[in-house]
From TrEMBL:
Superkingdom of this protein's organism: Bacteria
Originating organism: Rhodopirellula islandica
Source lineage: Bacteria, Pseudomonadati, Planctomycetota, Planctomycetia, Pirellulales
Any one GO MF annotation of this record: nucleotide binding
Name the record gives this protein: NADH-dependent dehydrogenase
Cited InterPro entries: Gfo/Idh/MocA-like_OxRdtase_N, Gfo/Idh/MocA_oxidrdct_glycsds, Gfo/Idh/MocA_OxRdtase_bact_C, NAD(P)-bd_dom_sf, TAT_signal
A UniProt-annotated Pfam family: GFO_IDH_MocA_C2
Domain Gfo/Idh/MocA-like oxidoreductase bacterial type C-terminal as annotated: residue spans: 207-292
Domain Gfo/Idh/MocA-like oxidoreductase N-terminal: 39-156
């Protein structure tokens, strides 16, 4: 990917040929974006990418001009190609960008480990980016995404779309209105049962790669390994450390999102994990991550404890949930914000429930309507309004989640985090996981 910069220069010089002015990458995208139709491409058109594409294309001002998927079968590239018949088709996202001087925006809906490697060059080309959650696979990548979005002044949105749902927007509003007072502690959990591979070694042997799958392109920046049916592509990559981020990575950017939005926290200063020993290649069955954050105007103290729990059937210890009556039913996934005047239960995904200090449930709460997370990005690219999960916000949220996944590698050991220096200051082995090795020839171009 070393030649992306050259491609960028090439694209920019091509775009301005015949004019006397020089455009920065930023201006380049803006000239084509402001208050005009938005030309977009989607990378990863199957799985969640399909609804991402339909969500953004729902804007009448959007033209889908490029589609890219490493799998040409009907469920992946096929259905998108049928629906957007005039769009150019690609298997290789690098070719899409190479030929994409008419593109203003790119959707990145691939497995987690390819989010940053695809988004960063797109941003460096001045493209607006809509990227799936978690924003990235490593903390370094998350920091890079935030820096790049700022430097190239593109419009970005992470797809933690529940943020725009009435349920989460109402929860944030109630906290900002002081309905539970300042917050003393937070508990967030995902008690569902993941269906992807866990606690298994890497399978031996290899299976023939189906004709419709470009396995080399799927592997992208990751070290090469043999193709195995049903193990990685599609969907099951989540359970493998090389590609996914386990249950915390899969749900953290959703469930912790209203906590971040409501309390305006950014980076933890320390964390400690309780989890079983990690297998060499897959993520664990369960984990508890206790984070400590600096306090904000919405917290009762100068520090805030946020605890994440995942594992089948988990929920927070009831004795910590002071305003909830014994018979209060907790959702299978969500958060409880324990405040000075009451507690807010934020189910994932349903309207929040507010318990007062006397343990009664508050009725007739205000309801904040939903907005459209997808067209919000398309509109912002065209100069109308702003996104709410831009990378300046989504970067630190993702970093927090990914610090938890580093902690899972070192259970029982406190990790102290200096966000500004990007250092786990007390643990050299843990620090190594702030980034990762990349396949030779596929190293990202850091900004
Ligand atoms: N926001 C949400 O609610 C939500 C829900 C599900 C998944 N996701 C996220 O969406 C992303 C995709 O998840 P999924 O479950 O759809 O995975 P998936 O494996 O089912 O689908 C990914 C799609 O991308 C394609 N693809 C893979 N690598 C590619 C590459 N290098 N270039 C082009 N195409 C490529 C695949 O062929 C497939 O069509 C993940 O980051 C996941 O965390 C988010």
């Amino acid at each position: 990917m070393r030649d992306v910069k050259n491609r960028r220069s090439f694209l920019k010089s091509t775009a301005i040929a015949g004019t006397a002015i020089t455009l920065s990458a930023t201006q380049y995208s803006r000239v084509h974006g402001a208050n005009e139709r938005l030309q977009i491409a989607s990378v990863g058109t199957g799985g969640k990418g399909w609804s991402d594409l339909l969500g953004v294309a729902a804007s009448p001002q959007v033209d889908v001009i490029g589609l890219c998927d490493i799998d040409s079968s009907p469920k992946h590239l096929g259905q998108a190609a049928e629906r957007f018949a005039s769009a150019r088709r690609y298997a290789d996202w690098r070719k899409l960008l190479d030929e994409g001087n008419d593109l203003q925006g790119v959707l990145v809906s691939t497995p987690d480990f390819m989010h940053a490697p695809i988004s960063l060059p797109a941003i460096q080309l001045g493209k607006h980016v809509f990227c799936q959650k978690p924003l990235t696979h490593t903390v370094t990548e998350a920091r890079q995404m935030k820096k790049a979005a700022k430097k190239f002044e593109v419009v970005t949105q992470m797809c933690n779309q529940i943020q725009s749902h009435s349920a989460y927007r109402t929860a944030v509003h109630l906290v900002h209105e002081g309905m539970i007072g300042k917050v003393r502690e937070v508990h967030s959990w995902q008690g569902g049962s993941p269906s992807w591979p866990r606690n298994i070694p890497r399978p031996s042997g290899s299976d023939p790669v189906p004709a419709n799958v470009r396995w080399d392109l799927w592997q992208g920046v990751a070290a090469e390994r043999p193709y195995k049916i049903g193990m990685y592509h599609p969907f099951n990559w989540r359970g493998w450390q090389a590609y996914g981020t386990g249950q915390l990575g899969d749900f953290g950017c959703h469930i912790l999102d209203p906590v971040f939005k409501a309390l305006e926290i950014q980076s933890p200063t320390k964390l400690i994990v309780d989890a079983p020993e990690l297998m060499p290649e897959t993520w664990t069955d369960r984990a508890t991550v206790q984070y400590e954050f600096p306090g904000t105007q919405y917290t009762a103290d100068s520090t805030l404890s946020v605890t994440w729990y995942d594992g089948v059937g988990v929920s927070p210890p009831r004795e910590r949930l002071t305003h909830l009556p014994d018979d209060a039913k907790l959702p299978g996934a969500g958060s409880v914000l324990v405040g000075e005047k009451g507690s807010l239960v934020i189910p994932h995904v349903a309207m929040p429930v507010l318990y007062r200090a006397d343990q009664s449930v508050a009725e007739d709460l205000p309801v904040i309507p939903s907005v459209d997370h997808y067209t919000q990005w398309a509109d912002a690219c065209r100069g109308m309004g702003e996104t709410t999960s831009h990378f300046d916000y989504a970067g630190p949220l993702t970093e927090t989640v990914l610090l938890g996944t580093i902690g899972i590698r070192f259970p029982g050991q406190e990790l102290q985090w200096d966000a500004e220096a990007m250092k786990i200051t007390n643990h050299a082995d843990a620090q190594q996981w702030v980034t990762k090795p990349y396949r030779k020839g596929w190293e990202p171009d850091w900004i």
